[in-house]
Amino acid sequence: MARPKIKASLPPGLIVQLGKTVWYTMWQVMMSRLAPSDDQGSYTRPASEFRHAITADGPYPPDRDRYRLIVGMGCPWAHRTLVTRALKGLEAVIPLWRVSPSPNEGFWLFENPGSEWRSLPELYQTAQSGYQGRSTVPVLWDTHTRTVVNNESAEIIKLLNTAFNDFAANPDLDLYPADLRAAIDDWNDRIYHAVNNGVYRCGFARSQTAYEAAGKQLFETLDEIDQQLATQRYLCGDHLTLADVRLFPTLFRFDAVYHGLFKCDRQRLRDYPNLWPYARDLYQQPGVAATCDLDTVRRDYYGNLFPLNPGGIIPLGPNPKAWQQPHQRDGYQGNY
Questions:
Q1: What is the pTM of this model?
Q2: Of 106, 157, 141, 136, which is closest to residue 45 (Cα–Cα)?
Q3: FRET partner for 312 with CA separation of 20 to 30 A, picked from 89, 97, 238, 286?
């Protein structure tokens, strides 16, 4: 005689509570490694560690084909260096080495199978034996001394703007002119904290209070920028500058990634009457579109940030052809 089957189960409420407790504990551990925070749960970005310059009389002089720019196409900090390199016409002067994030190993891997290094941490350890810090992109790499010259994107774009003018296709384009530097620096300070890093402060917040503070500041600043752009073509008037270069990669990723995955959902970029045409204006500058890869952006964010998207499902995202729509900002008479 067959024994009757006994259905044993925990009460649904207890299962939910247990699942939430286990997941929240694991989430906190993973987030502490992915995005360190302060006591209030606010994301704190670690500083870059390699901060050397390119100078004619220094250990790293400007030269053609001596340096490599190491980038991940999904990374906004690397993207700003790609935009500057394109605008200055340095593609033939500073070749690219590309890396992609590994969803299982948690670091960048070189895309070229014939590369000397398999991973970016291995390259950093070549530059500095025993290096245990963060192995981030972008990297300006010196092939002669085999070291990292600089891995701070805000400094790399300044180097690309002036240090290689003897070799650049567009040496007369100055994205950081002396008469505008105070205004550029002011915008950069505000945009970095509230927008460039602000979207990460929203997405990586580990408390409701930290998230709401970051979100409020983000959209207040975007509103301010939108108003500024109602009467001028670029952030600093009629001249394209590094302030625009630094803002653009965040805008490019906003609707595709930050609006959903990072909970920056009060408004889309496409809802702004001036920011959205401005972003398309930048996208349509010579060479810039070639630096933009929305498929890789979505894959890298949704496919690799497991604590924010544990299912790993990558959304279809907005139609990328929208970036090719006429921006109708030529009437501002920008001088690039």
A1: 0.89
A2: 136
A3: 97
